[in-house]
Amino acid sequence: MADNVRFTLNDKHVEIVGVSPVTTLLDWLRDHRGLRGTKEGCAEGDCGACTVVLEREGRRDAVNSCIVLLGQLDGQSVRTVEGLRGVDGGPHPVQTAMAEADATQCGFCTPGFVMSALAHASNGGTADPEAIHEALAGNLCRCTGYRPIVEAMTRIAGLAVEPPPAPLLSPRTTSTAFDGAFFAPRSLDELLALRAAHPEAFLLAGGTDLGLLASRERKPPKAVIHLMHVPELAAISATADKITIGAAATYEAAAPTLIEAFPALRPYLSRLGSRQIRNMGTIGGNIGTASPIGDMPPVLLALEASLTLVSKRGTREIPLDAFFLDYRKTELAADEIIQSLSMPRLWAGETFHCDKVSKRRDQDISTVAGAYRVRIRNGRIEDARLAFGGMAATPRRARAAEAALLKDGFAAAIEAIETDFKPLDDWRGSAAYRRQVAANLLRRLELRLAEPGRVLEVEAL
Predict the structure, then answer these.
(1) Which of 93, 282, 381, 458 has the least C-beta neighbours within 10 A?
(2) Among 37, 215, 44, 40, CA closest to 118
(3) What are 399-421's pLDDT values in tens digits?
(4) Separation CA 54–CA 436 (nearest Å)
């Protein structure tokens, strides 16, 4: 007999009966609970009107309820704008700040901004403009203008916000199944047994891509195996030699380890989706979807990443170079899952840089993404790994450019990049534009290496 999904909503225990676990949280809140403060704007996790907060492990994390499935919430604690109140029972301080700063007009987007502001204040967010910008990058407003919203965020930054309440529910310790189609294993052995028995099932980690089937497409998957409760897939470790990230570790959880090892990733990760997306999305999911314009694969290719793939048949490790076969096709067998990815730390004399070019600065998919690991000794480049996304049917290394760079320098590498790729040609950018961007990114890399102190980013004029 299948279990029911149960979680905490605005400090009250709820148990879902008679509703599919692949229903989005947004639809359930509005249609089944009558909580209509949470809005649908885009149905794909871009606009932030649907933002709610997950209260977990002493934190409050903003997420997009339009792409979160009910099955993902089992045992979690959710707060919507209707669940906010001050200590005296009146408006919450975040709501007061929004009102006093005149930070609302039509009000459609306001609940989402309020919940993002709550998460920012609760997690120690500062009034620094860059910190506020990053906190609000996943929330769009059409009519108020952002100045008063930023003013409200400045007022509540550093506010003494009450900590999340203790969870009402104890976590499950054994594998569960909801509605006979949503499986939530709690161990690697349970996961591998389910994968072998249900090779047709979708593997669901954060759901920032898969959730679109239920929200935008209105074609929810028939069978799902949820990965986020398997400890081995969430593990993150760092040794003197390498970094290992579990495939189901979220970007937000993995970011401190990655940035410590590769500082150039700090600005890059801040543009990988929004705070809401990074709180749910996983690097393993970004690899598994095998999109040619995913942000992380070029980075991982340049960093010489390898994957650990597991099934009931055993474990195998393959370089990421060998994982992507063709458009949306990979080496992953029907009964396998990605357990983790590993990459070596930078060696002495090595440097790493990465770039993302997109039509918008925030909340946009790459037109071209580039990543470069270069080893310099005695003033000469003796090794280089150059990888790009958006330039072919799969993320790929620019091997001809690598060879030309080592032999004849950057001018030859820039010329050779033409032979490495037959770029995509779509509304994000023509093939000719992408080739030019890739060449220009190599020129930028040359300047970075020649003049390390030179400022090459243009953020504002």
Answers:
(1) 458
(2) 37
(3) 999 999 999 999 999 999 999 99
(4) 42
